[in-house]
Amino acid sequence: MARSQRILTELWPDRPGGRLALVLALCTALALRLAGLDWGLPGAEHFFPFHPDEWINLEGPRRMVLTGDLDPGHFNYGSLHAYLTWLVLGACQALGLLGSPAAWFLAARVPVVLLGVLSVWLMLPLGRRLGSERLGLVAAWALALCPGHALHSGWFTVDVPSICFALVATWAALVHVDAGGRRALVACGLAAGLAAATKYPAGIVVLAGVAAATLRLRADGRLTARALAPAVGVLAGSALAAFLAGVPYAVLDFPAFWRDMTWELFDHSQGDHWTLFSGSGNGWWFLLRVNLVYVMGLGALVVALPGLVLLHRRRPRGGAVLWAWAVPYAWLLGLAGLRFQRYALLLAPVLALGLAAAALAVEDRVRRGLGRRGRALPARAAALVPALFLVWPGWLCLRQAEALRGPDPRLQCARWVRDHVPEGASVGMMMHPHWFSAPITPFNAGKPAAAYGDDRRLPWDLVVLERWDPRPLPSGGRTGSC
């Protein structure tokens, strides 16, 4: 118990200046993640949220609240986050806070925001284990100002919650590397199982525990297959127990679980989502030049990658724990046909550590270059050096928050149509209005009103022509634009 309490003290800086820096980082992270909390919520102009996964994700928790049936009925993702959301929605319903469709989505988004901020906090103990308290504090700021992490922390998806559990697993693995002991392995396995119960691919973080056990046995001079097997068994057993606790219907309704999980992992992931990613080229190159650029910002990514190499050179065992799961995960992303940005978010904390390591290395070089004056440099003045590395991602976060607070282009387009196209006119579209298109009809989930048993007429009713062929149209005809 005393050892566990000592480990938990790693969550709090030793010095007052470090505590202030952490509190400011957490407050900044919270503000940036709340900036777009009401973005794309359903209303009179569109009945479904603009984020394509939120309606599907909310269906299970909402049904559990309304019927009391705890079967999520949807296993494309692990059900742990659905159960956490069910608890939040149940409390909100008891308080009378779910009076509109938008309120349900808003309530479901709040826990994701909090788990995103908690992930920022967890960077501190990771940094301490990998080098120093300052490394953890700078890494916390780097994740707080990570544009991709800030953006997706405001939406009801499983990516950010799974990151939180993955960071706990990595922390436990680093504790085992340093001090050994079975408790750390159990904690690593449990957290990895919870990560997988939230989002299946996040369970790959269990490899951090395997790497930690291997490195610990090597340091003790006892590395053999026979010695490693019990450690792997502890990891596997605790991970499986946590996974089944979060996804109980993997046992209670195995056929439905297996059908949804295998389709998501092996069928859906290899598609291109209505040709969205057709022609996007090599998957690993796309990950590097597109997704990670938008997750971190180009400047931060360019600094973070060599920073990870530097971090590994200074703390090879800790670096190996990170590489053990981050490299295989990046490799799997490159193999996938679906290449949404949010899939790369699990790599954001690792890159934040690399950015922090590079920033502190430059600060150390500046101090040494200044000689005695550098050694006498006050801590606040020295902090300006790593702060410079956070200016660009911080500016991107502010621009992102500004965009989320402004009018969405899809709504602007739909309003233009309603203002300029006569009632009952025909509007040609390649498919019925979906989450990614202008809601010229409020049924913006890819199906017409009849699919929902709704025969209402609306003031701006239009005729949507799906999958039409524009080639027979006269070339000299006039067209509107929005």
Report on the structure:
The protein has 482 residues and is an all-alpha fold. It is 64% helix and 2% strand. The chain has a two-stranded parallel sheet with strand order 1-2. It is globular, with a radius of gyration of 25 Å.
Describe, in short, the structure shown.
The protein has 482 residues and is mainly α. Helices cover 64% and strands 2% of the residues. The radius of gyration is 25 Å and the shape is globular.
Which features would summarize this protein structure in a list?
single chain, 482 residues, mainly alpha, two-stranded parallel sheet, 22 helices, globular, disordered C terminus
Alpha-carbon Rg, integer: 25 Å
Could you spell the SSE succession in H and E letters?
HHHHHHHHHHHHHHHHHHHHHHEE
Strand order of the largest sheet: 1-2
Number of strands: 2
Please report the distance between the alpha carbons of the first and last residues.
Answer: 64 Å
Averaged pLDDT, please?
A: 89
Oligomer: single chain
Shape: globular
Number of helices in the DSSP assignment = 22
Largest sheet: 2 strands, parallel
* Helix content range: 55-70%
Approximately how much beta-strand content do the residues carry? under 5%
| Estimated structural class | mainly alpha
State the low-pLDDT regions, or none.
Answer: 475-482
